[in-house]
Amino acid sequence: SICSPDPDLLVWDSMPAPDDMGLYNLKGWLKVPILYNQPGLELIGQPLGFSAIRVSALTTCEPGHNAALTHCGGPGSTLSCLLFKWYRMFDLLSMSWDNLAITQRGIDATKVDPNPPKVPFVQADGMTPVEPFPVINCYEAGSFHALAEVSKMFDAANLDFKPYFDAFVEAYERPNFDVEVNVNPTLVKLQSMLTGAAQQLCRKDYDLGTNPVRGQMSYQDFAGTQDLAHDMDTFRRAIGQQKLSVWGVSYGTEVGATYATIFPENVHRLVLDGNVAISNKIYDAAKLWALSYEQVWQGLANACNSDYWNGADSESSCAATPYPTLKIYKVIGDSHERRVSALNLLAEAFDEEGIMQSGVDPYGAIVMACVQSAATGQGFDGPGCAYKDAPPKSEKEPLPPNLLEVVDQLLDKDEKSNQAVLLVRAVDMSGRLTMEDLANLWMRLQEEHPLGFLRASNIISIASAPNIPRPVPPYGSSSISPLIIGELYDPATTYTAAQTMSSFFPQGALMTWQGYHHGLPQTAAYSPDVQFANHIEGGAGFGAYDCVQKMSDYFELGTLPDDGYTCPTNGPGASTLSLANAKAAVARGVVIGGSESDK
CB count, 10 Å around CB of 490? Predict the structure, then answer.
């Protein structure tokens, strides 16, 4: 059972006191094979053995409960991802559910689980301690370590590094460095080389040895989504459940789909919300990821144009009406500097601290005010616009004029980081590109998706990773009936991804929310009168609440909504994109972009 699990697989740290709802918040160690179904290794007597990962549960410890594992996406979800509590699902459902969460392999969970106890397991020999699966921390592509290695490799190859280095220095001196490196094909190639060097250094740090069957191995090779799906099933077996429900959000939809594909007979309920654009092929993924910003912009632009036809006064209307798209293209075409600033504006407004996690209000209104300001020659200083370019890197720490000569002396300035997206995607996604192919792909993306290509920037590092992929299988099962949830205007992914995911599970149902957010907002579980009164989550309104009610009916009763069921939204429309709304937000201190101190 969940509170008395199989001690060979799962040991809880302790049994804490229950909270005011009678729920125990358990944390513990789960023993997992480093590689499941070890092809080749067992034949030569060199299995990799076991490792351990951290897991958690919210439970009343009563027998006979259903178990639902929730995955918050990333990649990089940890044992803190207990969505039943975050979305107040325990308020909506009976208490006959246990909520499980799992820390993905290689992911840093120290902020939420800082001092776990010692792993209580031993290897098959009965003596050697099982070690935790290590947190994979690597130097970033922009580190001095990576720069030093690439410079040395150019010298060893008797090639000229100066064109790449000069382009790097020029971009470094400008504002919005992170955008600059993604619009210059020379710097895209440099990123590819730097990523390869940084990841090769990292593989040495987490070496698992060499054998005749698999060659040189590192822990990174076994941190993919298939590995996670098998870990989830080990968790299921450890607590004695015949079936496991999975609720995945964002990348968690890929986790849930992979689990359902490999273990369809073990699935009870499956909810996939905020479905990530589905392709484990480099070229296709790049194009799909670039579409997400484009679809959000188009939704905002259509709503903005509607204000013109509604005949509202200028304060009550979207600032950029009519034809906001023509206006932003005018800004982008004015100069390189204006283009980079406008792209950074969209990225900052749409990404995690903006519409993606906080909804359309007030970021949509401010973006439109900024577009109008820039298009009419006022820069980004017009009414309702509060936007700051990221400062030049040189203002923070100037580059030494002889950087390549002294780079080895700067290595101690580097810090490693837990690059979760690259770690997992490099295992899951097939295909690697030469520097020339990558630069050509990137130029085509800029031409085809001029407002959205930055959303696909992770492709540069994934396509340059040195590991050999272990791709996930094609998703799908005709034996289970999942609930697929798609948001029409999700900056993180395309609505098409939800439609595609639905086609892989023909017995399921697709439910659509017309809103702006990555996945259903957490506050959607609050009653609609509270939502309308407080205007929370960017005006999510009754529609998101309706979707959450349908989701709870599915969890509790197995009742799917009609395929194609659509939950409405109350924004953007009415005053959501208005100039008055933008001005009010700016008066409250809302700023898009800038340095961390500005935020």
Answer: 30
The rounded Cα 244 to chain-centroid distance in angstroms is 24
Tell me, what's the pLDDT at 216?
A: 82
Q: d(Cα 434, Cα 370) in Å, to the nearest integer?
A: 38
Q: Is the peptide bond before 63 cis (omega within 30 degrees of 0)?
A: no
pLDDT value, residue 511: 97
d(CA 346, CA 353): 12
Bond prior to 466 in cis (omega within 30° of 0)? no
Q: What is the DSSP letter of 453?
A: G
pLDDT for 575 equals 59
Taken as a whole, the chain contains a residue count of 599
pTM of the model: 0.94
Q: What residue type is assigned to position 364 of the chain?
A: G
d(CA 542, CA 567): 8
Going by C-alpha positions, the residue among 178, 133, 222 that lies closest to residue 423 is 222
CA–CA separation, 440 and 452 (whole Å): 17
Least confident of 119-123, 156-160, 589-593: 589-593
Nearest in space to 421 (alpha carbons), one of 142, 106, 53, 56: 106
Q: CA 430, CA 435: separation in Å to the nearest integer?
A: 16
User: What residues does 244 pair with on adjacent strands?
Assistant: 267
Separation between Cα atoms, residue 168 and residue 135, nearest integer Å: 30
Q: Are 273 and 520 in contact (CB under 8 A)?
A: yes
Q: Which pLDDT score, from 0 to 100, does residue 440 have? A: 94
Other CB atoms within 10 A of residue 479 CB: 10
pLDDT given for residue 571 in this prediction = 54
**Phi and psi dihedrals of 35, rounded to 5?**
-135, 120
Q: Which of 364, 38, 403, 355 is nearest to 221 (CA)?
A: 38
Amino acid at 63: P
In the numeric block, the tokens 């749409």 are attached to: 350
Sign of the dihedral defined by the CA atoms of residues 111, 116, 121, 123, in that order: positive
Contacts 24+ apart (CB under 8 A), 262-267: 262/226, 262/229, 262/230, 262/233, 262/473, 263/229, 263/233, 264/477, 264/479, 264/480, 265/479, 266/233, 266/236, 266/242, 267/243, 267/477, 267/480
479, 452 in Cβ contact below 8 A?
Answer: no
At 400-441, the pLDDT tens digits run 888 888 999 999 999 999 999 999 999 999 889 999 999 999
Count Cβ neighbours within 10 Å for each residue of 208-247 and write b for 16 or more, e otherwise: beeeeebeebbbbbbbbbbbbbbbbbbbbebbebeebbbb
Q: How far is CA 111 from CA 78, 104, 115, 224, in A?
A: 10, 14, 10, 22
User: Could you count the other beta carbons within 10 Å of the beta carbon of residue 295?
Assistant: 18
Residue 106 to residues 27, 103, 121, 319, Cα–Cα distance (Å): 18, 8, 19, 46
Q: What is the C-alpha to C-alpha distance for residues 113 and 104, in angstroms, rounded to an integer?
A: 13
Summarised one tens digit per residue, pLDDT across range 157-203 is: 999 999 999 999 999 888 888 899 999 999 999 999 999 999 999 99
Give residues with Cβ within 8 angstroms of 515, minimum separation 6. Answer: 359, 360, 487, 488, 489, 521, 538, 540, 541, 543, 544, 569, 571
pLDDT at 526: 61
